[in-house]
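2024-03-11 09:14:02 INFO worker-7 job=invfold-0412 stage=load source=structure_tokens
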């Protein structure tokens, strides 16, 4: 899926419409809607070529599993459905691909008027995995709660969003650069690519850390991860920050494609003087001349 023709609204509009929803009304969704979301994730053509498999959990059918036990995420109210990705342990870029594919489904859900919330930190992976039929060679990096938003957010929902500063995003100057790390990119100079970069800026991320850093050199955008090592140590079961980069790559590719901007992902690590030690190169998007 290079261009999201299945979306009923422009990608930039869906990006702005999407917020992390932690209060759901608990009502059932039509089976075809759940199938659509699963197909969207499976058909997203993740950039690194790993092939996650996807499943939807209906919590009403597995109540005995007690998916959110003591010490779990526990901040979601009224969620009935969870869309999950299962990745193979031997695929080195599984985290980015899972983030890319699940976010494709998140944007689709937004187009259908549904609420979603990424859950990647603390949840019972063992119990979720058992319901999904996880194999010994697989991992469960994250799940996405999906459903119809409740008419009113719960107090806990509002507190979590406030504490995570969910309505705030880092300024452009902290995220995007041109020619090197000492020169922030000016959106006016980005031209037609500015909208794709803005869609990256508005992407969701674990604890709203927004770990993506992009430097443009000529006809290429080089994506890096500004690693928070302390946060990674707190969440050892999945590399949530690399999942975040996959989400950012999804926003960038889909919004660019919708604008008719052509390019492709490749592994082309640049040599940029002064690259901070905690920055990790992820991928390069090379502009294809029309």
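2024-03-11 09:14:09 INFO worker-7 stage=emit residues=290
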């Amino acid at each position: 899926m290079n261009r999201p023709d299945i979306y009923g609204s422009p990608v930039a509009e869906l990006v702005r419409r999407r917020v992390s929803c932690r209060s759901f009304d608990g009502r059932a969704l039509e089976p075809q809607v759940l199938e659509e979301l699963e197909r969207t994730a499976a058909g997203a053509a993740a950039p690194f070529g790993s092939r996650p498999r996807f499943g939807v959990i209906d919590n009403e059918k597995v109540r005995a599993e007690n998916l959110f036990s003591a010490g779990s995420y526990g901040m979601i109210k009224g969620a009935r459905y969870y869309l999950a990705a299962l990745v193979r342990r031997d695929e080195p870029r599984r985290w980015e691909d899972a983030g890319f594919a699940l976010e494709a489904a998140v944007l689709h859900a937004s187009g259908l008027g549904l609420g979603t919330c990424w859950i990647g930190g603390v949840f019972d992976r063992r119990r979720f995995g058992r319901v999904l039929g996880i194999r010994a060679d697989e991992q469960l990096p994250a799940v996405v709660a999906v459903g119809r938003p409740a008419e009113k957010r719960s107090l806990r929902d509002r507190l979590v969003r406030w504490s995570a500063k969910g309505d705030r995003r880092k300024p452009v100057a902290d995220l995007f650069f041109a020619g090197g790390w000492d020169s922030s990119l000016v959106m006016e100079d980005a031209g037609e690519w500015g909208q794709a970069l803005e869609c990256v800026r508005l992407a969701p991320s674990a604890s709203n850390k927004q770990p993506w850093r992009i430097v443009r050199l000529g006809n290429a955008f080089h994506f890096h991860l500004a690693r928070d090592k302390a946060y990674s140590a707190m969440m050892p079961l999945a590399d949530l920050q690399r999942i975040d980069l996959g989400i950012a790559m999804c926003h960038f590719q889909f919004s660019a494609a919708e604008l008719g901007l052509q390019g492709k992902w490749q592994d082309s690590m640049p040599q940029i003087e002064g690259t901070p030690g905690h920055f990790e190169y992820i991928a390069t998007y090379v502009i294809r001349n029309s």
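2024-03-11 09:14:09 INFO worker-7 stage=report msg="The beta strands are 53-58, 81-88, 115-119, 138-147, 176-178, 212-217, 220-226, 263-266, 279-287."
2024-03-11 09:14:10 INFO worker-7 job finished
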